[in-house]
Amino acid sequence: xxxxxxxxxxxxxxxxxxxxxxxxxxxxxxxxxxxxxxxxxxxxxxxxxxxxxxxxxxxxxxxxxxxxxxxxxxxxxxxxxxxxxxxxxxxxxxxxxxxxxxxxxxxxxxxxxxxxxxxxxxxxxxxxxxxxxxxxxxxxxxxxxxxxxxxxxxxxxxxxxxxxxxxxxxxxxxxxxxxxxxxxxxxxxxxxxxxxxxxxxxxxxxxxxxxxxxxxxxxxxxxxxxxxxxxxxxxxxxxxxxxxxxxxxxxxxxxxxxxxxxxxxxxxxxxxxxxxxxxxxxxxxxxxxxxxxxxxxxxxxxxxxxxxxxxxxxxxxxxxxxxxxxxxxxxxxxxxxxxxxxxxxxxxxxx
RNA sequence: GCACAGGUGGCCGAGCGGUUAAUGGCAGCAGACUGUAAAUCUGCCGCUCCUUGGAGCUACGGAGGUUCGAAUCCUCCCCUGUGCA
Length: 351
Fold this sequence. Notes:
Blueprint: E1 2-3, E2 6-7, E3 12-15, H1 27-32, E4 37-41, H2 42-47, H3 51-56, H4 60-64, E5 69-73, H5 76-81, E6 86-88, E7 93-96, E8 103-106, H6 108-118, E9 122-124, H7 136-160, E10 176-181, H8 187-200, E11 205-207, H9 216-226, E12 236-238, H10 244-253, E13 257-260, H11 262-268, E14 271-274, E15 277-280, H12 307-315, H13 319-347
Parallel strand pairs: 3-13, 4-5, 9-10, 10-11, 11-12, 12-13
Antiparallel strand pairs: 1-2, 6-7, 7-8, 14-15
Helix pairs in contact: 6-7, 7-8, 10-13, 11-13, 12-13
This protein binds one RNA strand through helix 5, strand 13, helix 11 and helix 13.
C-alpha cells in the first residue's frame, strides 16, 4: 500500500495515537519498532490543540515529528462513546466537549475539513457507529445515516483534499478517504452497506461497529461475512480490533489493516502480551522473576529488562513502566503481523 | 511537675451509647481492559470454619466500673504531642 508518507506493508497493525501521541512512546522509538502507520484522532485534535493550529504548523506529521503514515479516525467513534454528551441529527452531531463541556457540531464536511487540515494519509468517512446490542431497525437507521454521510464525506474530501498542509509525497501518492461499513450484527445489512459503499468507489474500506461489546465469535462472523463484499484489491480495514490471536486470525482471513488501543492501554495497566499468553506483570509472583517478559521476544525491552524490574516499576508507579510495557506490547503486536505477512508470502506462489 | 490535646484494624484517619468487624484514604492481593473522556475501573482486604449465604471467635492503649447494651460515659493507670514551669 503506497501512501503519501511511505509504503506500508500489509496486513498491518496500526498503533493508536489519539492525541498526536501513541501514549507513553516517543516517535523515534515507534520508528525503532518499525511501526509503519499510526492513528490520530479527529475529535481529540480538533478540540486540542485545534486542527487549524496543526495546519499552520505544517500538519500533524511535522507537528508530532512523525514522518511515516497517519490514518485519522473521523470522530465517529467518539460520537458513539460519548453518547451522553451527543445528539445525532440528519445533518451531523451536536456534542459537548469532554474537556470543558463546550458545545460543538460535527458534520461529515467538518470532519473532512479537520482531517484534511491535519494532513492525514488516510482519512475516514464520518460514520455513526452502531451500538451493541442494536435491533434491526436501529442498525438499519444507523447504516442509512452512515451511507448518507459517506457520500457527503467523499464529495467534500475529493473537493478539498488538495488543501492539505504538505505537498511533497512518496511516489506521488495522494491522501485517500476510506468508507466505513456499518450494519450492526446483521449480515445482510453489512452486505448491503458494503455494496453501496463499493458503488461509491472508495480507495479503501473499513469495517466499523465491531468490538463494541459483542462476543468475539460474532465479531469474527461479521468480518467473515463482510470481507467478500469488499474488493480484495483495495485495503480492507477492521477498526478497533483486537487481541493478538484475533488480529492474526483476521489478517489470515484477508484483513489488511487493524488498529486497537488494547496493546497500549493494557500495557499502562500492567498487562503484557507474550508468546506464553497474557501476563499481569503486577502480580506478586513476578517480584523475584529475573527472566525477560517474553523469552521468545527479541524486542528492546525483553532484551534488557526483567519481569522483576517491570513489576517494580509499575508497583512504584514509575512512568517508565508505561513506556517499557507499551514498547513491548507494540513490539509483540507488530511482530505478530510480521509473522503473518511472512506466512502469506510463503503461501503465495506468485512471489 | 502542672495545663491542654490525643491514643481506633499494616499506616493515616472518621465515628463519640445500640442499625459497628467499625465511613474514607493509603498500602497490599487479584481481576478487567478491543476505531483511548482510561498512568483507568472493579472486587477482596481482623482470624477460623462450612466453598451462595452464613457460623463462631477476637477487636478501638491497659485494668476496673456504669448500662439491657460501650470504641463511644465514669475511675485509676500507662503512653504520645504541644504549652507553661
